[in-house]
Amino acid sequence: MPTTEEIPIAFKPSLENNGWKKLSVDLKALYQNSKDTDITLISGNDKIHAHKIILTARSTGFKKIFHHDEEKAEQNSVNITDVTFPALKRLVKFLYSGILENGENKDMNLQELNDLYSSADKFEVMDLREMVGNTLLERIQVDNASEILILANRHNDKDLKSRVMNFIRLNFEAFSNTDAWEYCALHHPRLAMEVVNFYINKAENNENQV
C-alpha cells in the first residue's frame, strides 16, 4: 500500500473558505452572462435579467413576491417602482456574489448609500443592510448625522440609530448648529425630541457619576 505524508493541520487548505470564494465567483459569472434567466426586473427603462431561484434563496423580500403572489409567480417580469436602478443593480449583484465590488462602497456618495440601504431593507437582505449601515457610520459627520439618523429611524434599525445618536451626543454642540439638525427638528420633531432627551439623560448620568 502506498503511503502519504501527513499534512500538518495548520497547512491544510480550507475547503470551506476556498469553496465559498469559488461559489461567489461562479454565481457572479452566472449573473454577468445572463444565462438561462427566467425573470426580468424592470426599473423605469432599465432591465435586469436574473434567476428566480437565486433571488428567492437570498432575499426574503423576493421570496414573498414570487411565492405569495400567485399572479406574479407566473410572470417572467416584475416592475420595481420604488428602488433606483443603480441600487437595484447593486442589490442583485450582491445576491449572486455575497460581496460588494472592491472599493465600490467607497465610490458611492451618501445618497447612493442611502438608496442601497433602503433597497436592502425593502427586500430584506439584512446582511447587505448591515454592511451599508457600517459604511454610513464610517462616513458620519456632524453635517450628515441627521440624515443617517432619519434613515435608521425610518427603517427601524435600532442598532444603527443607537450608534448615530451616540455620535450626536458626543458632538452635540457642533451638531446642533447645523442646517441638517434644523431640518430634522422641523420635519421630524419626535425624533429630534428623542435626540435631545437622549443627550440630557446621558449628561445627567455623567454628572451623577462624578
TrEMBL record:
Pfam families: BTB. It comes from the Eukaryota. InterPro entries: BTB/POZ_dom, SKP1/BTB/POZ_sf. Residues 37-104 form the BTB domain. Gene3D superfamilies: 1.25.40.420, Potassium Channel Kv1.1, Chain A. This is BTB domain-containing protein. It comes from Larinioides sclopetarius.
